[in-house]
Amino acid sequence: MSTAQRVAPPPVAGPGRAGLSARIALVAVAVLGAAHLTAYFLSLFLSPIGFDEAFILQAPLNLVAGDGYSTEDWLGGGANIAFDATVTTGPVLGAPIALSFWLFGVSVTAARIVTLPFFLLLLACLVVLGRRAAGWWGAAAALGALLLLDGRADFPRSVLYGTSDALGEVAAASLVALGLVLLPRRRMLAGLAVGFAVLAKFIAAIAVPALVVALLLIPAVRGRRWGRRIGEAAAFVGFAAIPSVAWELVKLLSLGSSGYLVALRSNAVFVFHSGSGADGSNSLGPLARTGLLFQAWHLPTAIAVVLGLLVVALAIVAVWGRRPGVDTAAVGVLLALFAAWWILVSSSQFIRHGFPVLMVGVPVLAALAVAGLRRLADRGLAWRIPAVGAGVVAAGLAVYGGAVAVVQATQSPLWSRADQQATADFVRSLGVADVQGLGWFAAPDVRLLSGVVSRPLGHGTGPLVIEPILREQSAEAYQEALALCADVRFEQNGFVVCDVRPGATSGIGR
Description:
two-stranded antiparallel sheet; 62% helix
């Protein structure tokens, strides 16, 4: 695709001024990149391990232990569940984490450090996409927008403590971004990248139809014959399917035909009932679900709404009357498709589930807003003054986002990794064969850090472990759990290890 077909900022008068602006923008990109990396490494070493993160890490942990890619049966107390459908983070991240565990031992750091290449890839791709949209200032805007995303918006129910978390959102976002970078000239490689994104986090599958629509219908490719467009779209889809087909073959060979059919049915049931909205379980109205989107940022909701509308308007200004590049148009289709699904269909109440799209789409949208500001500024002084003012506000927001991201990475809301480690150390010191948990509240962080398996209440012989996340979700359930204790042996900041009262039963977590 020729450079003329891309959305490009209007020329700035005076080569000296343009050079100075570019140098300042480069410095801004470097500073924002440093802020991202600072927050990353702080979360790598300091932030607690999330409940979902610890649960997902069972798969690589058991793989290293020789028990296959499996999780413990915390509801039935039976054998480990191979290729558990509830492990939504796939082998793109799980396999290298297993290798890291094998090489360096089991630890939070050993799991999270695997995400570093993916995070660097995400930053690099956002710089490329932002620069394509609006030069180096577009790259700076893309990095700044990513800093404003609040991974802890769903706390305590579900949380991304930082970009180092081994949950798969960052890995999926980085591969979707790579697909967008490759899309203009390398359709098949772009498909392969998006295919691996789907294996990192299944929600990334929404990028496949979005990019196919972009390849078929956007103005930038209308000059090509339908046969060529359909061929390119088919090649994209074919290569996107390769990673998933390969993984399904691994599952088939591991489980056999009957076991594979059971696993396939479990996956279908999970996708149908667990947030996709396919079962018609969306109980919130469109307005409430839209509100969830605007609560995912380090900004008051009202400001986020106003800013979001302004960014969308400026992005429209940037592309109005021009032929956008295939990558730019694909981002627009991706965001539109995601928003339609999230607002009208999805039943998920965790905005974290949309991060693989938001981490890519919103930063590129912010870069397009910069192109829109430049286009307005080129219309004359009357437009230039408000455009410059908007640019100053954007710079302030980027600085604010960087500061909040770094500070947040040093803070541990309600409980800390030290609390988790102290509880795990105590459990390990007991020398027990197992601990007991309450259904899904089976203390996955303590299980991971202690190396002691967790079994449902009544299926094990060890002490009961109670976690503060239960207290935050239901104070009544937490008190009910404490009533199951005959003797408390350890207590720290909501973490409790106790001997179980004889005959105690509970329906908590089921």
